[in-house]
Amino acid sequence: MSSRIYFMLVAIFTVAAVFQFSGQVSGAQHCGMNTNVLGQLVSQCEKYVLKSGPKIRPSPGCCAVVKKVDVPCMCKFVTKQIEEIVSIEKMLYVARSCGIKISAGTKCGSFTVRSA
Q: What stretches of the chain adopt beta strand conformation (E)?
């Protein structure tokens, strides 16, 4: 798996993205994720959270994986490097579109979540 894909993963839900390699794994593990779920996030959700392109509703496959992720926990691990690749606003849109509740005021990198 390429480092860019790993970065996208951590950032999504973030999962997560551009930590230093050990930071990605420990951040994901801290939030109860294993590498299988991280791989699924990348393959199913990558196109919905990239900075480039329009904001589009996530697929059922993406939502199935997103529901396995503790998004507010992963938000604690979002770095400036992640934000260079992933749109945090799109990431939160995907999470909410998939039924994940994220409280207003939650910090996700430099982004503060507003009311839905």
A: 107-108, 111-112
Task: State if pTM tops 0.90.
Answer: no
Gap between the Cα atoms of 81 and 84, Å rounded = 5
Residue range(s) defining the domain that contains residue 30: 3-112
For the stretch 56-99, pLDDT in tens is 999 999 999 999 888 888 888 888 888 888 899 999 999 999 99
92: tokens are 């939160």
Contact 66, 41 (CB under 8 A): yes
Contact of 109 with 88, CB cutoff 8 Å: yes
Domain count along the chain: 1
